[in-house]
Amino acid sequence: MTRLQWTSRPTGRRLEASHVIAAAPDDAWEVLVDTTRWPTWSPVIFGVDATDRYVRTGTSGRVRAPGVWLPFTGTSGRVRAPGVWLPFTVTDCRERSWTWRVAELPGATHRVDELGTDRCRVVFELPPASVGAAPVCLEALERIDAVLEDSEST
C-alpha cells in the first residue's frame, strides 16, 4: 500500500510518502543506504560520486540530476542541456533513518519501518518546502519495491 499523509515530527510537520513492501527491513535499508544503487531506484538521480558507498552521518558527494530541454532559436527549436551535478551531505544517519541536504537545501528523510520479518514500510519524509517532490518520491517507492522483488527472484 502506497500513501501520502501529513505527520508531526520533533523537527516540524512533514509530508510522508510511504509504501509497504514484502521484503526484510534490512534488505530495504541496504537499498536506501548504498549510494551505488541510488540510480536504480531514483527517477531523478543518474549518477553518484560519494565519499562512502554506504551512507553515514557526514557522507558527502554529488548526485547527477537529469538534463533539461531549453528553448533555442536555431534550426532545431530546442536543445538538451546536460545533467547537472548537485552537492549533497548526509546530516543524520541512525536507526534505519537518514536525512540529507542537496545543494544546501533540506532534503527528504529516508526511513525503513519494520513491520515483520519479511515486511517493511519505506518512507520518505518531506519538509514543507519540498512537498513538490512527492510525485518523485512515489515513483521512487515503486522502483524500490521492484528492485527488492528482482533481488529476491535472483
Secondary-structure element order, as H and E? EEHHEEEEEEEEH
The average pLDDT value, as a whole number, equals 91
Instruction: Please identify the structural class as seen in this structure.
Output: alpha+beta
- Largest sheet, strands/sense/barrel: 8 strands, antiparallel
Write down the overall geometry: globular
Number of strands: 10
Uncertain residue segments: none
- State the distance separating the first and last CA atoms: 24 Å
Task: Please name the defining characteristics of this protein.
3 helices; alpha+beta; eight-stranded antiparallel β-sheet; two-stranded antiparallel sheet; 154 residues
What does this structure look like?
- The chain has helices at 25-33, 38-41, 134-153; strands at 2-9, 12-21, 47-50, 60-65, 68-71, 78-81, 84-94, 97-102, 105-116, 119-126.
- By secondary structure, the chain is of the alpha+beta class.
- Strands 1-2-10-9-8-7-4-3 form an eight-stranded antiparallel beta sheet, with helices on one face. It has a two-stranded antiparallel sheet with strand order 5-6.
- 29% of the residues are buried.
- The model has no long low-confidence stretch (mean pLDDT 91).
How is the topology of this model organized?
Layout (H helix, E strand, L loop, with lengths): L1 E8 L2 E10 L3 H9 L4 H4 L5 E4 L9 E6 L2 E4 L6 E4 L2 E11 L2 E6 L2 E12 L2 E8 L7 H20 L1
Antiparallel strand pairs: 1-2, 2-10, 3-4, 4-7, 5-6, 7-8, 8-9, 9-10
